[in-house]
Amino acid sequence: MEVEGSWTEAFDGSDINEGSGGTSHFLSSSSLTLAPLLTDGSSIRRSNPILITSNRVKGSDSLSFSDPSIPNPFPELCSPSKSPVLIRSFHPTSSDQHVLKVFSEDNNSRSLWVSAGSTAREVCSLLVKTAHCSDVENWALLELHPSLGLERCLEDHEDVLKIQAAWSLKGDTRLVFCKNYAKYEFFRKPTLFFPQNMISDRGDVEKEMTSSQLIQSGGCPEIQGFLHVKEQSRKSWKKLYFFLRRSGLYCSTKGTSKEPRHLQYVAELEDLNVYTVVNGRKLYGAPTDFSFCIKPSRKPVRAQDLKIFSAENEQTRTCWTSAFRLFKHGKQLQCNYQLSQLRHGNLEARNVSDIKRREALRCSLPNLSSAARPASIHTTQPWFHGGVSRSDAQRLIEKQGLVDGMFLIRASQQHAQCFVLSLCYKLKTKHYLIIPCEDGGRKYFTMDDGDTLFIDLLQLVEFHQINKGILPVCLKHPCVCVAL
């Protein structure tokens, strides 16, 4: 190759500048660089290598160059540390942050960043702030397995990310943010959730206290009773007598005998989760509608690992599932309940006071009539659920907890222009027809054949929140759905 004009050879580690002579010394080198001749005799300026590390030290200054920097026309896309634009949707800098996807009951979802070790209570508190919910303590996360028909409410102290890590990647498991008023209801009314005929005297004698006192202290008496159990790898069901103790679940091979030689060990409680089975008749051929199951908590949910039981009624199923929770978590549930009570404070008393104040203000208004506000005001209330069916209303109340006073109002599917009040009382859902009527040319609503009249459904609900009227219990907990 020919180079016109004067040239010089520059070699790493050498400061010798030469012309055309002496080339044999440098030809033996593997690195040869041509540089223009410096007429002023100054030293040659070489570019030194720059070491680029994979992880830049936090707080270190960026590299400076002699060339003028080109301004970034889109700073919001890069969000540098000194940029005034803050992009919150990017991954947090902390490595213990994880994405958690939570669904609402209308199948909408929201993804949020949660820290490792976050409990179900902490996630619910975050969602309450996001969805602007007024009630804090009665929200819960529901673990739902639609294809298997299983669901359970996560305990407040459970690690959400650890539970999510045990799910199958190919499954349809999800977390649902919903109301659950019955999480700790057995602490308030143990006799309703634990009937005396299902409690063994042995548990009370050992603890030297009544079953109610034992439950309220975080313990649980021995539970016994008949259950239908599905045989493994078969469609048939057997009716056996079961015993639930702190040491585990047992069944008797001879009637109701408690003798050790007749007891067969079924499962240990420490590594079990209990689920409510939805639509057990269709999915598993259950003999009743009140099914539940247990499965190992550390294994993915598979049909072959489920032990499915079927009770005779809702009270029996609730007793068994509540006993499983108490035997497994014990004192921790009592601590969760006490914490919820402290945070709840006097919220119920304030709500009743507000209702009475609004009712007094309404009665003091002159010319009170249905024209004072729109007739469709009930459609904006959280307790109104449109035209849902009777079975869907029952299912919604059951999912949010069979607590006395839980209610919703829906449009009647059988009677035009009528509504139905669905109310939970003693673990059962009752339905009351709300009929429109006219008096003096004005339209009213009534549930007692016109003895008590209300100008709209909102007044009807607020009245029965402080007065039972013809209902067995006052309206207390609205059955609501919140869109995330």
Description:
The model is unreliable at 7-42, 54-67, 79-91 and 364-371 (pLDDT under 50). With 484 residues, the protein is of the alpha+beta class. The chain has helices spanning 23-27, 75-78, 120-131, 160-165, 185-188, 190-193, 201-207, 211-216, 280-284, 314-329, 331-344, 347-364, 390-399, 457-464; strands spanning 7-10, 33-36, 97-103, 109-115, 139-145, 150-153, 174-179, 223-230, 237-245, 248-252, 263-267, 272-277, 290-296, 307-311, 406-411, 419-425, 428-439, 442-446, 477-478. Strands 4-3-7-5-6-12-13-14-8-9-10-11 form a 12-stranded mixed sheet. A 5-stranded mixed sheet has the order 18-17-16-15-19. The chain has a two-stranded antiparallel sheet with strand order 1-2. The protein is globular. It contains 14 helices and 19 strands. The longest helix has 18 residues, at 347-364.
